[in-house]
Amino acid sequence: MPRLNVVVASTRPGRIGHVIGDWFAGVAAAHGGFDVRVVDLAELDLPFHDEPGQPVDGGPYAHEHTRRWSETTDAADAFVFVMPEYNRGYSAPLKNALDYLYREWHHKPAGFVSYGMSSAGMRAVEQLKPVLGALRMVPLAESVNIHLRQVVDADGTFVPNPAMAAAAQGMLDELRLMAELMAAARVAA
Questions:
Q1: 82 has which bridge partners?
Q2: What does the alpha-carbon distance between residue 31 and residue 52 come to, in Å, rounded to a whole number?
Q3: pTM for the whole thing?
Q4: What is residue 153's DSSP assignment?
Q5: H/E element holding 143?
Q6: 143 φ, ψ to 5°?
Q7: Other beta carbons less than 10 A from residue 18's beta carbon
Q8: Kindly report the CA angle at 15 between 9 and 19, in degrees rounded to 5?
Q9: Which of 64, 74, 113, 129 has the most CB atoms around it within 10 Å of its CB?
Q10: CA dihedral 154, 156, 157, 160 (to 10 degrees)
């Protein structure tokens, strides 16, 4: 079964990203097409890129945190980035995590669960796609876009709706197909 890393990209105290990430990981596990792992960048706690070598060289990595991140990323067959939109862009911790590595990302599909107030994070996703292309990843068109004002109640509780679940199912179906196709590309490369 292909491994799916659900990457929670917000590290801000008081964030809702881990709640959304846990919701999506539950939907992905119920889908049954993946071995689902949640990777929370707040828990990963990568320092600002401190690896002396170039990621394109693929190691050896000088730091244990880079080696752990490399192993976690290399083991995955697909990714879903659970990502907020900050000032019309994606988070700095996500960019930092991506830039630590290079070959570990190659020929793997990426889906998006984005969230925000006005655009549901879609502007951040559009900014991220060229970066993923440079890493030889395949960003999906299917995504889950969450307007926080519509799914967070007066008590601050995240309340997913049926449209989000349906979007997640469609994205997971496409992600599974692409993960299988890209696995063959990684073997051939």
A1: 8, 113
A2: 40
A3: 0.96
A4: -
A5: strand 138-147
A6: -160, 170
A7: 17
A8: 80
A9: 113
A10: 80
Yes or no: say if 6 and 41 are a contact pair by the CB < 8 Å rule.
no
Return the axis-axis angle of helices 162-188 and 17-31, rounded to nearest 10°. 70
Inter-CA distances, 27 with 22, 48, 125, 172, Å:
9, 32, 21, 9
Inform me whether the pLDDT recorded for 59 exceeds 90.
no
80: which DSSP letter? E
Contacting residues for 80 by C-beta, under 8 A, at least 6 apart = 4, 5, 6, 7, 24, 28, 110, 111, 112, 113, 171, 175
Around Cβ 42, how many Cβ atoms within 10 Å?
Answer: 15
Residue position matching structure tokens 């960048």: 41
Q: What does the pLDDT average to over 161-170?
A: 97
3-state secondary structure of 103: helix
Considering only CA atoms, which of 2, 26, 173, 174 is closest in space to residue 75?
Answer: 2
CB 164 within 8 A of CB 144: yes
What element of type H or E holds 110? strand 109-116
pLDDT tens profile 69-91: 999 999 999 999 999 999 999 99
Query: What pLDDT does 102 receive?
Result: 96
Question: Is pLDDT of 15 > 90?
Answer: yes
